[in-house]
Design brief:
Blueprint lengths: L25 H11 L6
Length: 42
């Protein structure tokens, strides 16, 4: 006999702790954009 409640669903989420950019020059462009517009979002 078990006393655990039945689980109807489960949501799992993780933040992007490490981003691998495969676009050549993307990191340079992002840094330049942040200098030109500090309140810009990516």
């Amino acid at each position: 006999m078990t006393f655990a409640p039945r689980i109807a669903g489960l949501v799992l989420a993780t933040p992007a702790l490490e981003v691998n950019l495969m676009v050549p020059g993307a990191l340079t462009r992002i840094r330049m954009m942040k200098k030109l517009s500090p309140d810009a979002t990516i």
